[in-house]
Amino acid sequence: MKKSKSIRLVLLGGLSAGAFSGCTPSNPPAEPLLSGGVYTNDYHVAGVGYYHAPFRAWYPLPYNHYDPTRHMYFHGGQWSQAPHQSSTTVSSPSEEALQQARSNHSGVRRNGFGSSSSSTHSISS
Question: Structurally, how many domains does the chain consist of?
Answer without folding.
Answer: 1
